[in-house]
Amino acid sequence: MKELQARIKQDGQVLGKDVLKVDSFLNHQIDPLLMQRMGEEFYQHFREFPITKILTVESSGIAPAVMTGLAFQKPVVFARKHKSLTLKDDLYVADVYSFTKKTANKISVSRKFLSATDHVLIVDDFLANGQAVAGLTDIIKQADAHLEGIGIVIEKTFQKGRQLIDRQHIPIFSLARIKAFENGQVVFEEE
Ligand code: 5GP
């Protein structure tokens, strides 16, 4: 998505060798019009899929997921993050190792909001090593729901997430694909 690439070039900050800070439009302050156009892009890509629900994880996935749900006119569910969680019967629970915080978390979704009749589109802000997507995929499996595809706002193709997803033959679509950070600058796959 050209508009997103331009925005990343303009406002993104490269931190260290593998983190991109985009808190002026995605991760802290949110640009709602850009989010809306991103939701529309995901819709255009996945519109032929029988999606019944959008699934993401709090908090940064929520804005793009809501706009995708709006485009599909389907509900959006976000997994909640917990430091620890004692087993609860009414929740699906999965483990996720946080890429940015370097901590292990549990994520959970209420059994009320995901079931075997659901066809799910996962939406998240970043794909790095694929841990967040793996946790969400685990929850979808526990619910006996069907994973239709994955929509990612910013994919870093030099990390392991894409390989993990491709190995499972899950359709994936990313709006911006970053090949490398070179001298503090972002290089996109499509450049
Ligand atoms: P993964 O689970 O794929 O390793 O990492 C994905 C999660 O980590 C995303 O949900 C996102 O919140 C966070 N993340 C990964 N890489 C970045 C990054 O470069 N910048 C920011 N802001 N968040 C990231």
UniProtKB/TrEMBL annotation:
List of residues binding 5-phospho-alpha-D-ribose 1-diphosphate: 128-132
Domain of life: Bacteria
Positions with a binding annotation for xanthine: 20, 27, 156
Function: Converts the preformed base xanthine, a product of nucleic acid breakdown, to xanthosine 5'-monophosphate (XMP), so it can be reused for RNA or DNA synthesis.
Quaternary structure annotation from Swiss-Prot or TrEMBL: Homodimer.
HAMAP family found in the cross-reference section: XPRTase
Similarity comment: family membership: Belongs to the purine/pyrimidine phosphoribosyltransferase family. Xpt subfamily.
Protein known as: Xanthine phosphoribosyltransferase
Source organism (scientific name): Bombilactobacillus mellifer
